Known about the structure:
The complex is a heterodimer.
Chain A: E1 7-13, E2 22-25, E3 33-37, E4 43-49, E5 52-58, E6 65-71, E7 80-85, E8 88-92, E9 98-103, E10 112-116, E11 119-123, E12 127-132, E13 135-141, E14 146-151, E15 162-166, E16 170-175, E17 178-184, E18 189-194, E19 205-210, E20 215-219, E21 229-234, E22 243-249, E23 258-263, E24 267-273, E25 279-286, E26 291-297, E27 306-311, E28 315-320, H1 337-367, E29 374-377, E30 383-389, E31 394-400, E32 405-412, E33 417-419, E34 427-430, E35 441-446, E36 453-459, E37 466-474, E38 480-488, E39 494-497, E40 507-513, H2 517-527, E41 541-547, E42 553-559, E43 562-567, H3 570-586, E44 591-596, H4 601-635, H5 644-662, H6 666-684, H7 693-701, H8 705-713
Antiparallel strand pairs in A: 1-28, 2-3, 3-4, 4-5, 6-7, 7-8, 8-9, 10-11, 11-12, 12-13, 14-15, 15-16, 16-17, 18-19, 19-20, 20-21, 22-23, 23-24, 24-25, 26-27, 27-28, 30-31, 31-36, 32-35, 32-37, 33-36, 34-35, 37-38, 39-41, 40-43, 40-44, 41-42, 42-43
Chain B: E1 6-9, E2 19-22, E3 30-35, E4 39-43, E5 58-61, E6 64-68, E7 73-79, E8 89-94, E9 97-102, E10 107-113, E11 120-124, E12 133-137, E13 141-145, E14 151-156, E15 161-167, E16 176-181, E17 185-190, E18 193-199, E19 204-209, E20 214-219, E21 223-228, E22 231-237, E23 242-248, E24 257-262, E25 266-270, E26 277-282, E27 287-293, E28 302-307, E29 311-315, H1 331-370, H2 384-387, E30 391-394, E31 399-406, E32 415-422, E33 427-434, E34 443-446, E35 456-461, E36 469-478, E37 484-494, E38 500-502, E39 515-519, H3 524-534, E40 548-554, E41 560-565, E42 570-574, H4 578-591, E43 600-602, H5 604-651, H6 654-701, H7 706-720, H8 724-733
Antiparallel strand pairs in B: 1-29, 2-3, 3-4, 4-6, 5-6, 7-8, 8-9, 9-10, 11-12, 12-13, 13-14, 15-16, 16-17, 17-18, 19-20, 20-21, 21-22, 23-24, 24-25, 25-26, 27-28, 28-29, 31-32, 32-35, 33-34, 33-36, 36-37, 38-40, 39-42, 39-43, 40-41, 41-42
Amino acid sequence: MMELNLSRVDYVQVGVTSQKCMKLLHGSGKTQKIVIADHDGVLQCFGMKKGEPTHIFKTSPSQKINRLELGGPVGGTRDRIFIGVGPEVRGYSKKGKNFLSFDTNMSEPIQSMYVEGADLFCCGNFIYNHYRDCKDANYFLSGDQISDVICLPVNKTTDIIPVLACQDRVLRVIQESELMYEVEVPGPPVVLQLYGNDGGEEGNEILFGTSDGRIGLVESKLGGKLAPSHRWELTNDKRNGGVISLDNFDITLDGVKDLIVGRDDGLVEIYSYDEVEEPIHRFSHTCSESVTSVQGGSVGSTGYDEIVCATYAGWVLGLTTEPLTKGMGPTEVHIATTTTNKLHSLKEELDGLQQKVATEREKYQETAQSTSAISAVPYFAVNDKFVLNREDASYTLSLELQMPIDNVLLQSDVPIDLLDVEKNSAVVSYSACNPEEGNFLLATYRCQANTTRLELKIRSIEGQYGTLQAYITPRIQPKMCQVKQYQIKPLSLHQRTHVFDNSRPHNSLTLTGQFSLAEMHAWIVYCLPEIPERTPPGDNVVFHFVSTFLDTQLECCYKKGEAIFRSDNISTISILKDVLSKEATKKKIRLDISYEINDDSIPYTLNLLHPKLEHHLLLAKKVQLIDALKELQVHENNLDFMSPEYRQILDDANDLQLEYKKQPCHLERLYGMITDLYIDKFKFKGQNVKTRVPSLLEVLDNYDLQSLVQFFEASA
Amino acid sequence: MLVPIFNLKLNHKVNPHMVTVGRYDGIHSSLTCATTAGKVFIHNPHSKKFSQEGPVSFASDSDVNLLSINQQVAALGAGRLDVNSDKDVLAVGTQTNLMVYDVNNNSDIFYRETPDGSNSITIGRLGSYDQPLVIIGGNCSLQGYDMEGLDSFWTVTGDNVCSLALLDFNNDGQNELIVGSEDYDIRVFKEDEIIAELTETDTITCLCEMQDTKFGYALANGTVGVYDRNARYWRIKSKNQPMTIHGFDLDSDGVLELITGWSNGKVDARSDRTGEVIFKDNFTCAVAGIVQSDYRHDGTEQLICVSTEGEVRGYNPATKDMAGNLMDTNFEQDTVREVSQRIQNLKMELKNYDQNTKAGSVAAAAKISGGGSFSAERPFPPGEFDKARMGVIPAATQLQTTLTVYPGDPETSPHIELFIGTTNETAVRVVMIFAEGIFEGESHVVHPQQSKVSTIMKIPIIPPKDVTVDLHIKALIGYKTSSQFHVFELTRQLPKFSMYQLLPPQAEVQEPGGHCTFQINDRISRVVLWINQSFLLQEDLACEGQQLSIAFLSLRGSGPLFIKIEQSGQVMIRTDDMDLAAEIIQSLSNFLNMEDLQVIADFPEDMEKLRQILVKVDEFHSVRQKLTAEMADHSNLIRNMVVRAEDARIMGDMKNMRKGYMELFNLNRDLINGYKIRCSNHQELLNCLKQVNQVIQKAGKLRVGKYKTQVISACRVAIKNNNVNSLFKIIKSGAS
Lengths: 716, 736
């Protein structure tokens, strides 16, 4: 297979860009034009001529632009530019003529948008609106936040079938104003793209990318009530960033459009397809900033294909097939004249700016003399993400700014662990802290020069809840700092799901009292992650969750005046009971709490844990042996005397160590959960068994499922 | 792109720091590394087998020969010791001894007991010694052995030695010894005289020679850098630990680069002038060592990197046509990107000022029309600016900081108090102090609860030792409800002796028993100047008359400190803390530019302690001898028993066999117990010896210049002759 070799070329820098805000336009010339819209409200269209951008048009700054889409006649060239500005949709011709200004009358800004022929689809956070020829056509209220919207190509499907990507891990397929069906996907989807940019042969294949870094292809079955099918899914084993942009373009020139992926940790990847049409990885490039849009085309020079990317901080760059390192001489670097000119003009601009900044700085300093003047530091945008990873039950916090970060202070009023992240190069320093002052963690991250993005990994403990605060100081004058808050919820390791196994033995907790549905919903939002803050419509609400660490499940079922929680894990019920009664007391609402404990649930949960526990115990044991075995290997020439088991360990040593390193303290966490389970079981019986915990740990050290179950069953 | 010219997998683990290369046959280079289980392996790709007759057993496995040392290896070194031979010798240091070994002939050159251990080894010429020396750095001690195994060089240093390097520090044509130790100091020894002391911020784990008077260093906290004599060129800090450093000219520009191997497997080459990375590569696990040698025997020296898993990569220096560009970087693109980034940052700064001006005029207008309903906290009328969530404070806000000595009360221990306060009603939300060497990490954060945020903040600081430290303070200023803050950045210096509280003249404090006296020729006003600089005083001490008497109390509980100066220029320092006295003398003599200073000292407490330690050392020695004898007895017994038990087995006498093995088991247990006792005994002995070395070092530090060297060498002689009384006399008077 031909090796892909792409080199990076930077084109321009614009303001901060949102997801899907850059597109390539087919112009009359041989190369394509770039259209890009940013948060400063500037929409610009430019082409590249000899390394210099030449603008076709550029609008003046206005409100933040959230989305840019191209439209055109059905099945024809898309050359009309549509942007979402606040609640308004504006249309521009490729020459920059503003031919449309349409106020959608939505109560919130447009977050995502799609254009198909005369149909316009706009979504706010929860609302979906469909306009035909700028007239209201359909309306739908989603149960959870909408991240993206797309419509299947009308020329291939007869109906208009829009698809919404929703935060609660489903794709919602809409028919007119009704939900046709839901497709569950493995992570919160954030971006949708038609397969091959045209939805495949039948126009019903959709690519999705999730915030936990997975990519998949689903085929929606049309006509009849057939379940949609998942064609393939790429998991995120390497723990790369979330997928925020997708495109299809044949950069490998093999006649099949390749998949191009942009992630929020700056990674751009190219996958081509094998014989069975499954993607295989071909190329990666790291940009160090979130890649908000990717598109394949030809911009820089005629005849060379490239991937054009836009980043959060507004860089527009190309990964081109054109070889760039050609001007290298033996003793010095021959800089091409175009670049010299470019550098020259840039340096001139820099000098001018430096002088201007110096006078402004002076002016700013002078205001300090005045007693009435104020010093105001403008709010700077922080692109942050705080998500739970299913694989290792930890949270990833990523922070990204438009300017370089100087330092970040993390403060937490609840015990959490910070884990090392390979790709973050900041120097961390833990400061001594006093829990009595509400500080369980104080850590500073001092960033290396030119770091605009910082990623951190955090491990929480269920039942311990509070707030994590990040004080972010960018490297810019005047020096300022912004604080961001993240909630660590009581059941922080739970994740939304849409399946619930009713056959498991369940413990239940029932709350009755004078509370409204909204109040109950607010409490549940307080306890569990991944639920929209808005109270869902209807009188009866049901949510399902799964514990990412233990795979136990939880059902929340509530209405006005009554809430029922069911879980096979007694600790989950215990945490909910504690938190909810505390919250109700705070609000002075009387709650009647009753619970039903199913004794079968304990052995069930232990059985559920058994494979994990056994695996990790074995792993720990094997890893412990590696060093000793290796020493023996050094001493002896021949390893035939060793049992096959030991030889196997030696052979797999590297893999074992790698797996062990991947999940630090996993065993300790499992032990902690089992201890909690033990304490909680007897807490419901009104017994305090804390004194028996050491003997429990003893049982765990010589683990055997049977004896553990017996230990749990033996009454204290 | 520079790629490795060879790549080997040795299939042996390699202990970090213990990698060296030597030409044991005078021609071919062999990579030598310490591995687990007390073994050293020699990679000998040129397939000439070493002599199999000799004291060390070789286990041969293709190109790798294993040497069994049978003790945990602590340090390795290779180099030429015999000026008349072209063969390198291998020096292996363990916790208790040093073995210098001729690999080619498989014979010991010499073997020495080293009770101070050997943490680091280097081989080369030092000062005016006419023979190269094997220099080992142990617990507070430095020893140099020549070809015959005579320890012709001996001196002490402040703490356990971690790293050594030989280079011409002052460009006098002779090598000086650079020593990095656990007390964060890099000391430069011209033979046994210290000619420079450089204080760093953590344990110095590696040192390496660079060109001319330059050398590279690495610290345990992730810092690497380059010094030229006393001046630091640059340093960088990473979250990973540097495992090894080496100077090598990788880009063929005639100047050595600093090559660093990191704990995460990264290898990078940095320019010696700027620290800029010119090349990097990655291993899958930590780097254990980096050396250079003509490994391919083709006349060029390669840079050889070895990982802890035994992976070896060799790099040839870049060829001319790479033009110093080892990473395939595109200079044009990089420069364009860098300049654009700077332009962007400046534009953003301008935007900030612009927004500030706009906000200022809106706020001013609101103030006029609003009739005082707007405060600084809510400066804007409802509307666009109010929604913009700006961080607003009065422009005249200033930050006040003071450092004071706080003597402590029943609830809080004594400390230095850093006071931070604003000049108006704005609050101090968070204070971050970045300073190295005095906190657990590099920073200290004070983050009060939301409800307890106020306009002032008092931060206790307790520096663990007497050092001058710059405190880089970042204070976040705003209002209680703000989410956007102003950051005030300032730097305050903590003087060296800040943990000492000035006592009022009338205070009645018992004078401490320890004291030292010396003569200075400078005016008293200079000394007063020094006191004002080095101590944390509320107001500067005025210079009155020709006499001075001043008293301090240590906040660390080591009692009072008196400094008295007579009209004649005689200075007396009274304190029970010998270390403190030494530090004061060093600091003062440095300030007054004194080259030599003889001091009469008497520290009865320390001397008494020393006497007890010396008695203990004797005890430990005799216990050790006894234990060794016992062990030998047991080993003999075991041999007999095994024979007897095995005989019984062959004869089918199961009863006696079982009995025999039971006895053997018991004996074995005794032996293990004996070993444990021996271990702890050895540990105690090490501690005591370390303390003795430290006392000698302090005694030296009480003097300056040639007197310092004199004291240390005199003490050495006294210890060698086991003359305790003379030792005390030397410490007191500074001469034998």
